[in-house]
Amino acid sequence: MYRILRSILFLMDAEKAHHIAMSALKICCRFKSLRVLLHRFFQPVNSNPIQLWNLSFSNRVGLGAGFDKNARYLTELETLGFGFVEIGTVTPLPQEGNPKPRLFRLPKDKALINRMGFNNEGVEKIAERLKEWRSKNKNTRLIIGGNIGKNKITPNENAARDYEICFERLYDWVDYFVVNVSSPNTPGLRELQEKESLRTILTRLQQINRNNGKTKPLLLKIAPDLSAAQVEDVIELALEIQLDGLVVSNTTIDRTNLITDATKIEEIGAGGLSGKPLQTKSNEWIRFIHEKSEGKIPIIGSGGIFTAEDAKIKLQMGASLIQVWTGFVYEGPAIVKKIVKYIN
Known about the structure:
- It is a single chain.
- This protein is α/β, with parallel strands linked by helices and 344 residues long.
- Helix content is 42%, strand content 16%.
- The protein has helices spanning 2-9, 14-29, 32-42, 74-79, 123-136, 159-170, 195-211, 228-240, 262-268, 279-292, 308-317, 326-331, 335-343, and strands spanning 50-52, 55-57, 61-63, 84-90, 103-106, 111-114, 143-148, 176-180, 218-222, 245-248, 272-275, 299-302, 321-324.
- The strands form three sheets. An eight-stranded parallel beta barrel has the order 3-4-7-8-9-10-12-13, surrounded by five helices. It has a three-stranded antiparallel sheet with strand order 5-6-11, with no helix packed on it.
- It is globular.
């Protein structure tokens, strides 16, 4: 059924298709009978709750940041069985992101290229939406992560303040935080992955965190294009400041070994590549970090997960939880149920 729907959606611009599909799901979920039906069909069966960071995840499968940037579809995504959803990336000020088109499919490679550019409605509006959703869904089991970033107009020397603003404003409404300095679509952002820049940002956030009494898990999302020395710096810093975990990994700027015609790749241009081509690189970094840290740093594995076997490999490499995004686009709304069935 989804293959037919996918073939129709794939005739449209990718970003437009995303909004149409999610708007249709939102309309369906407004009707209690339809929402109950969708819940019964897509909820994982016999999933075991996972305890991590003093949080109880109903299952190990989450949705990565970038899909629900503005926290508009939490009810709908919970209905589809996700154990956790990471909203954002959220910036202090609203921003439109990069010019369209900015999301492209590579069906031969089961991949996407995006250069969205942190398009979002800004932290104030998103915080208010989360507050309202929480008040209406007090019995929810859905874990919500807040992926935070800096505005494009903010110079890197002032970036820490942008992260602080988002952290403080979202603090009451999300269950954990992810610091995003690894998107390739904001000019200069990846420069913040250098050890001292990271130290400044993460130390400030940890100070705010501890001053609030009940601390929220703080994670860092890393790029797959780092060198081994840079990843070792991240591991050392994570252990030093007691970071709660890493998301491994963001999209890649690497274009090697793609099946899609090189001319098309050149026409698409810049952006982060996600999906199957990222799978091996993501797995290797998960294993590297898990071994180097002696398993002391919890990892959310992300990149190229389409099947239960893909998820199993990431868990075997050392991930505690996994996130899908591109796999959700290609495999459809039953992906959570299919994965959870075989990884319990």
